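subagent[fold] <- orchestrator: predict structure for attached chain, return tokens only, no commentary.
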Amino acid sequence: MKERETVSIKSITQEIKVITGELMQTLKNLRERIKTLETERANLLLEIENLKKAAEDRISALESEVNMLREEVKSFREFLGSTDNKNGKT
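subagent[fold] -> orchestrator:
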């Protein structure tokens, strides 16, 4: 009976070593994936910041252009108003 117990303990010990090795490999893979995801996250956050800055720059440029166009409209209206006044129109 002692021989069976020894064989059984040896086989269980061997199975535990195999399972432990597999778990260690899984842990290593998970750590690598986490590291990759963290790097990707950092890159995405940086890309988002760059896109925000580009959008803000574009908004600023558009606002400036709109203001310039408003000034042109105002000037044209003033010009047309003064032209109308010369012709007797108000």
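orchestrator: received. Logging for downstream: The helical segments are 2-86. The chain has a mean pLDDT of 90.
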